[in-house]
Design a protein that fits this description.
This protein has 142 residues and is α+β, with helices and mostly antiparallel strands. The chain is 33% helix and 33% strand. It is globular. The two termini are 22 Å apart.
């Protein structure tokens, strides 16, 4: 399945969860409901997946966890906060690098309209041989 198809399904499922629950709950509630919706769509979903860190050729277990890994390709970081900060985007980008994934979604459910809480972060989305890709790493905001 292509990345755009996966992210389209994730965003649709997130909108369903947000319309049903609204803002104001804990991140863990949104995570559980989104994972439920995605599995109902037939997608492979891993929750709270450990992320290893390689430092000086040594793999370290530092306690980092992904909220969701969908189809072994897209990382979903879930927030329920007033304002998404640059550090939250940096956190997702770090997870993408550590997991060697190309695409992640940062979804903040603490908004009135979920479209305002979506951030798409790419890590080396285009191969180096691709036509004039703007940069190896980019942030795309919906």
């Amino acid at each position: 399945m292509e990345l755009n198809d996966i992210t389209r399904k994730i965003i649709g499922a997130a909108i369903t969860v947000h319309r049903t629950l609204g803002p104001g709950l804990l991140e863990s509630a949104y995570e559980a409901c989104l994972a439920f919706e995605l599995r109902n769509l037939g997608l492979k979903v891993e929750q709270q997946k450990p992320v290893g860190l390689v430092y000086h050729d040594v793999k370290l277990e530092c306690g980092y966890r992904l909220d969701l890994l969908v189809e072994d390709q897209v990382i979903v970081e879930i927030k329920a906060i007033e304002n998404v900060l640059r550090v939250h985007k940096s956190q997702l980008l770090s997870h993408l690098r550590f997991m060697d994934c190309r695409l992640g979604l940062l979804i903040n459910f603490h908004v009135d309209v979920l479209r305002n809480g979506l951030t798409r972060i790419a890590n080396k989305l285009y191969p180096s041989s691709a036509f004039s890709a703007p940069s190896a790493t980019s942030e795309l905001i919906f």
